[in-house]
Amino acid sequence: MSRFQRLAAATVATVFLLVTIGVVVRATASGEACPHWPGCFPGQFLPGLGADIHVWIEWLHRTVAAVIGFEVLGLAVIAFLDYRDRRSILWPATGAVVLVGFQAWLGQETVRLGNSGPSVTAHLGAAMALVGLLVYLLVRAWYPARVGGPGSGSATQGSSVGGVSSRASQRFTLLATFGAAATFVLLLFGSNVTATSAALVFPDWPLMNGGIQAIGPDTPSSLAALYAAHELHRYAAVVVFVILAWIAAVAWRARASRPAIARLAVAVVAVYVVQVVVGGLQVLTQLAPWTQTLHVALGSLIWVGAAGLAIWAYYEGRSVATVASPDGNAGAVAERTGEGRADSESAPEAAAGVGRREGIGDSVRAYVALTKPRIIELLLVTTVPAMVLATREVPGIQLGDWTRLTFWTLVCGTLAAGSANAINQYLERDIDGLMARTRRRPLPADKVEPERAMLFGIVLGVVSVDLMAWTVNLLAASLTLLAIGFYVVIYTVLLKRTTPQNIVIGGAAGALPPVIGWAAVTGNVGMPALLLFLVVFYWTPPHFWALALRIRGDYAAARIPMLPVVKGIAETSRQIGLYTVLLVALTLVFAVVARMGAIYLGAAVVLGAIFLWRAYVLWQQGTSPEASTAQ
Fold it and tell me: How many angstroms separate the CA atoms of 215 and 226, rounded?
């Protein structure tokens, strides 16, 4: 183990200790025992021997934080000395120094604000982000400087070593990444429960006031926000458990080839089960300090495991593809075992040369094309009306709360949709090259390296979810993450190449923007928002199948089982008609539930009648011109 690896491991352990001590500070109300920062009292750093125990607890918290600052600074120095030719280590190590500085500033603000709920949540979120970055550095340092893999092209997509194909490895990595992101958001949900003092709003567990849903029409407005915070945390915990269990099941099926990864995935789920029990004990013991401390400590441990699993799976997948590459086993094995470490990551890469020759402007346009801007426009069009409907207001010129929420919701929504679209293009770059409609996209046209496209998509996703949580609210952020994960994992990875119902189920991702817009301005999900979801959900199949009828030859060439390819024109036209009937009926139900006026009702009737007529004509004739007008 190198000195960088030893220090990285020690720093991860120290940050984990700091988070645990931070919970003790919160549970014992020791945060306000030291009114000054960084020392507890003016002119002295060490508390006096007769100082209260709460002073010593807070002092220990700050001292450990200072130790972490030196550890991270040491990581950056060693990275410069030993890995200056490895940007994948040097720049993140430098970024960790910046993040520690930001975390120190948040600590100062937390003290200044008297340990307010939002400041404590932000402090914990920054600490978890630092943990994730340190886990990345620890895992990355175990692999050689240059690790080839499926991202470097499409030639090795079908390669396999030890029974693990590169495509299966990509899918598992994305699923594990989604699980890690969901775990991070769940930690923020839990912190929000503490921040809003909603931990004991329900006296029972796992039920909530004797039921599975606490908020009802008779819930006092003074309790609704507290109920919502705690209820969302419990529901989110169930969702995250399902995701982590799914990851563990997938990993366990491949345990013969990757036993260590399978054991880690199962261990994360096992710790999660213990974490759930401890969460219940928090309620049943009336927030005993040991339950609070253990709950956050286990949550941090789960985050470490989930993040480590995603990063480890990523580099293992690239190593598998490297070993399987047909252009020289000796060099691939040398890289995998750590030989040839002197290869510089900053050396020019052949695939990247195309992008450099084209110039910065062409590269920017290529990255913008990865986000599919025209699709983003359609998604945002459904977001703003939901916000208007929820508030019955229109954003004005003055920068008030409503306008600010609208601005940030649209910005974060744009980043999230761009993230999902970029990752989608990375995963579908092989079939995009086979279809006339998509072969000019950046990846099949070799305008962007696949690995960089994937990284671009992941970064956009992380920024969108974090920014949504920071500027809007946690519920909107969690729904944003759900939309990204559903489009990438459920639709792209699991459904698109396997079933003609791909667009029906996968359409749920595109139907979430109105729900996100509603949650952004209300902090909850009301019945009108769910109906808007259904309207977009049932609109998607008629719209997309009409397009698929026109380009069914492309889908057949790429072996994508779209409905027109599998069932033919007649059945597709019939399905378009049936879904259109459901769509129009939902728009009329929405008029009643959302108390829309006569203008909306008239428009819904007229436009619905036109849609039905076009669908009927398509059903009767089933040709490409009718498919164009049916959209």
Answer: 10
